[in-house]
Amino acid sequence: MKIKIAILGYGNLGKGIECAARQNDDLELVGVFTRREPATVKTLTGVPVYAESELLSKKNEIDVLVLCGGSATDLPIQTPQYAKHFNVVDSFDTHAKIPEHFKAVDEAAKGAGKIAMISVGWDPGMFSLNRLYGNCILRDGKDYTFWGKGVSQGHSDAIRRIEGVKNAKQYTVPIEEALTSVRAGENPELSTRQKHTRECYVVAKEGADKARIEQEIKTMPNYFADYDTTVHFITEEELIRDHSGIPHGGFVLRSGKTGLQGENKHLIEYRLQLDSNPEFTACVLVAYARAAYRMNQENMTGCKTVFDVAPAYLSPLSAEELRANLL
Amino acid sequence: MKIKIAILGYGNLGKGIECAARQNDDLELVGVFTRREPATVKTLTGVPVYAESELLSKKNEIDVLVLCGGSATDLPIQTPQYAKHFNVVDSFDTHAKIPEHFKAVDEAAKGAGKIAMISVGWDPGMFSLNRLYGNCILRDGKDYTFWGKGVSQGHSDAIRRIEGVKNAKQYTVPIEEALTSVRAGENPELSTRQKHTRECYVVAKEGADKARIEQEIKTMPNYFADYDTTVHFITEEELIRDHSGIPHGGFVLRSGKTGLQGENKHLIEYRLQLDSNPEFTACVLVAYARAAYRMNQENMTGCKTVFDVAPAYLSPLSAEELRANLL
């Protein structure tokens, strides 16, 4: 019997879940739920679309609800709300607010006897796991996380809000020298500017003052002022042709020492190179949806993160198959 | 109260455990147990040495016994034997025999109400985990494991058994072109010869026929015949000066596709670069010793592998601290 999953929110992440579900024989996508008028939403694979208001009435047809809303305003409401009725998985990624999100979700899920898996994806998610494993193994060491090369939606949006900007795409790029130094075991102290550069591709409105736009980008506090930023003005056609993808990725490194005097150096490096950030995130969510269902079947309840999930729960294979083939 | 661990077997791995324990404030190494005459064994840090025959009498002073014997003859006996009395951790690495080892150990540990963590280290171990995570996330994909550059003890030993060889060290080296092709998402089919080369540093006995030795190495079935092998004859002094370390490492890669038509490529790469193979392995064992103790405190019993351990058990930090700092 397949695990029945449903999607709430049909943006890039929701579409990613729809595609990822098809790659997993033991999962069945039973529906997409949306705040929009269902008749206006057409799914990629013909999965039926329902109004969000119908969700509770379909409670018994859904094993895990995958929440595909945003971290700013959707998930802080939706995850605790739906954890009262469903096993849920979300990709809540506002790192600073995870403890408070956890608390709200944990109460809801425990009360309902459900599992709620939060902050699943790659950062938080797979990167967090690699920080944890690295820290536990190399106790005397240093952590590094680099992001990119990849599109930052938040930074692209910030540029678009500047007067005279028609469209924009921003790439976060790790600085090769910094990576090289970390890999060499030099344990450098790296400033924000030494870790990443920011590359901006900007379409200006006709007649706009490009010099002013460039200046406003480069001096924007928090977003760009602390980085070496380059700004390229291009046409809308070039933006569509060359910058339509949503690639991302990055590196988690743990550099540490062992031995009686710390005489031996070690490096653990985890790298992601992703053509599509939302589709990869969706693949992680789907694996953890499987885990949520299986853990709940074993009577576990409450809010969980990637730290709480024994890896075997993620796989459709049996424990025997895993030991024989992957160990 | 600290978790009390003990070591059985005081070779390179045992010494690594001794060093690793000092890097973990919540662990206390209470003793080294050996088959040798205890008076002849001197520990690096002054930890007391006992005869193996004293182990059972110290049962109540030991929370986890770390088994540091070899996979060929020691662990198949020791792990089931001591799982009847202690929580144990081993680094059993004969991949093909893991299912049968698991079965013997599981019965012993369950009968005694203990946890027995087997096949812990980096391969099996951290590499296995990365194969599992990669497989669960990128369902439509391909796995690659490369080893090295590093010293293969088994291959070095095989060379030493050839007549006329005084000493030898063998390095397994991943082939850069193969790695490049995998990283480019080309999903190549790679033969044994296309993945690794073997570099041998050999000290010949005086008057030995070097041409014959080289020929015997290069044509040795299983060990060298399927690889491009280079043989360097060097002096004993050079061997000691340049090849005394036990470095190792390697790569686990998962290359996969997502999207409606598999139009987006993704690469997950996990890399280890280790100055000391046994010391790194020891660090992993110590983290899983902590997990074994904590899982047993929660009344879990039986044989476990890295697949069965929720990552949070590995860390001395609380769940709250982990969520706040590493997620």
Task: Describe the structure in your own words.
The structure is a homodimer of 327-residue chains. Chain A is of the alpha/beta class and 327 residues long. Helices cover 34% and strands 26% of the residues of chain A. Chain A contains eleven helices and 14 strands. In chain A, strand 1, helix 1 and strand 2 form a beta-alpha-beta unit. At the A-B interface, helix 1, helix 3, helix 4, strand 13 and helix 10 of A face helix 1, helix 3, helix 4, strand 13 and helix 10 of B. Strand 13 (264-274) of chain A pairs antiparallel with strand 13 (264-274) of chain B.
The main pleated sheet of chain A reads as:
7 strands, parallel
Q: How large is the share of residues in beta strands of chain A?
A: 25-35%
Order of SSEs of chain A, N→C? EHEEEHEHEHEEHEHHEHEHEEHEH
Radius of gyration of chain A (Å): 22 Å
**Biggest chain pair interface:** A-B, 66 and 66 residues
The residue-averaged pLDDT of chain A reads 97
Which structural class do the helices and strands of chain A define? alpha/beta
Strand order of the largest sheet of chain A: 3-2-1-4-5-6-14
Tell me the overall shape of chain A: globular
Question: What level of helicity do the residues of chain A show?
Answer: 25-40%
Total helices of chain A: the number is 11
**Unreliable spans of chain A:** none
End-to-end C-alpha gap of chain A: 27 Å
Number of strands of chain A: 14
